[in-house]
Amino acid sequence: MQNFVFENPTKIVFGKDQIKKTGREVKKFGRKVLMVYGQGSIKKNGIYDRVIASLNEAGLQIVEFPGVRSNPVLSYALKGIDVAKREGVDVVLAVGGGSVMDTAKTIAVGAKTDDDVWDYFVFKKAVQGALPLLTVVTISASASEMNPAAVITKEEDAQKYSFRSPFAQPKTSILDPTALFTLSPAYSAYSAVDAIAHMLEPYFKNTEPNSLLQDRLVEGLVKTVMESAEAILKDPADYDARANMMWAAILGFNGMTTAGIGLIGLPAHMMEHAVSALYDIAHGAGLSITLPAWMSYIVGENPAKFARLARKLFGIEEKDDLKAGMAGIARLKEWFKSIGSPVSLGEAQIPEQDIGKIAENAYALSQLWGLSDYYTEEVITDILKLCK
Amino acid sequence: MQNFVFENPTKIVFGKDQIKKTGREVKKFGRKVLMVYGQGSIKKNGIYDRVIASLNEAGLQIVEFPGVRSNPVLSYALKGIDVAKREGVDVVLAVGGGSVMDTAKTIAVGAKTDDDVWDYFVFKKAVQGALPLLTVVTISASASEMNPAAVITKEEDAQKYSFRSPFAQPKTSILDPTALFTLSPAYSAYSAVDAIAHMLEPYFKNTEPNSLLQDRLVEGLVKTVMESAEAILKDPADYDARANMMWAAILGFNGMTTAGIGLIGLPAHMMEHAVSALYDIAHGAGLSITLPAWMSYIVGENPAKFARLARKLFGIEEKDDLKAGMAGIARLKEWFKSIGSPVSLGEAQIPEQDIGKIAENAYALSQLWGLSDYYTEEVITDILKLCK
Questions:
Q1: What domains can be seen in chain A, in order of their start residue?
Q2: Which of B5, B16, B212 lies at the smallest CB-CB distance from A11?
Q3: pTM flag (> 0.95)
């Protein structure tokens, strides 16, 4: 096992009817709150009313900042920073999924500085502080509710980049599985893909034979996500399935499963960021295209590990590791398809002749993330060619 | 899944050569530190020198409080509280295993109050504050380094009781697996037993069929603890085995595996507390006696769950759940024996005619812990009769 530091202070308030605690949790950090949310789905499903009622009950002043879209953009976060500064809010509350939470993180950080916040995303500067941030989660996939990362797209340069800072870690996150009951089948599926990718990318990186602890955690969590997704597609209001998905998505990307396996890279995410920076595609939908392609590209480097997963997840009995590993990838791809997530660029209406452009975009991120020794533009192109 | 609140802010600094960071971590919380440790093993294996050097390098004033023994006693913690108050220390540093950490927690809490600290153990009063506490871990089993609990024995009444308070949660814990290289085979085995009991007691309590997430985490962690213990007994300086044991013991009792399964009881621990309150036996050695007996007593209530574990851990192929479950218990007992931990009262030189006395002691704890509806003195007696 490799050396690590693990610290994850976010308080998780989990379960039925917990949204009513939002006000009292927010109040611990200030009196005037910026409430960040998306395109209005929370008004349709009643979450908005429940959050507002709780904030009012706690006697908080509320400034609303709605309108965050999926694949959130920098320009909109900058508007939020202006509002936060102008209104002098003490605390930021995100009510939404990864896009809303990551926009809220960017606002929380930007409200405390005159820096160009994009400098944090391109690693030019380190975050020095942030307004306290809390979340009420309505899409469970990114684990942003219990981690220090945020992803935003600078639209004019088509750069979908990210930063990590302990200052951006939510203080408290409120997770009510019933808030997910109205999430569409498509987004429920994309959420599962995202959660699985967060775990499998580091999993295949972990090649230490004596470090099975993390592998076993991942195998149990991935299995749980898959089962839960299947149950959710049958019954969107299956409480236990939504709850398991919600908690598994967090445990799979809050630092626990990767503590001890060294620096992690997220190459399938890297390529997906390029895809969704250039095309309006849901993050999870992009990942179900790039993840199997990436797995197919590297399976020969560590067939035993791929075979292990194939046997654990799909009960594949093939004795030859490489064959078993490849069969496992095929099964995962079929499974993505079965839940309604695309597995090829074509299915997502992305023309194959654009591969060069996507590779170029991804390679810039590969360099920024320090992955470019392996993930050259040529390698990325070869992987993207497998996205079919 | 049931509602829960999860919050575990302890910072874990894990790995080779991390003890040198002790000083800088302690310094964040004060300038004068009470260093609590045990019977001197840390002087033999060099940990003492490394900790002192780091504290000195950080320019800290050190007050030493050595001499904590295993199955730590209240009277000695009270002495520590006196020293902490008299010296006006700002921060407490535990260097040791569960006994040292739990004594240090009691001191940290007691130093900030004029309450009789025993009132916290008998749930008469709630803890209102504590000096900041840090730990350097030399025995890995209790997970005290990342949880809010402490266990202490009031010797005159033979009461081995515990309290839990977020104030007692360590701020930072430093875990260097090499610090465990000189731990005896016996204590290495007892550590494994303790870690396993922490996980299996709630595991068998979790009977929700749709809440497999926590079960899978436990199964992976228990398997890891067992493999690691076997490797450690072959080679006490097996770094990866020590590291896996160290991290698995924490993840198995830091609140993660039990979040979502409701209130947990620890009946095998309850009975072991009675055993080690009355006899000088290592906690893990007591648990390898009470845990299989308790499992045998309740196997009929939930045979499917016992069968699941038997199949996962030992590959038992028996189709009948009750038979498979019972075979699993027998295999676990054999395994405890194989690593050198006793599985009967007789092996621990505890006379069978004392069962009445042990049951009476355990029943008092059963009442205090709110388990007495099920765990009456008669039931406890029946379970203790299986301890052979």
A1: 11-179 (3.40.50.1970), 183-385 (1.20.1090.10)
A2: B5
A3: yes
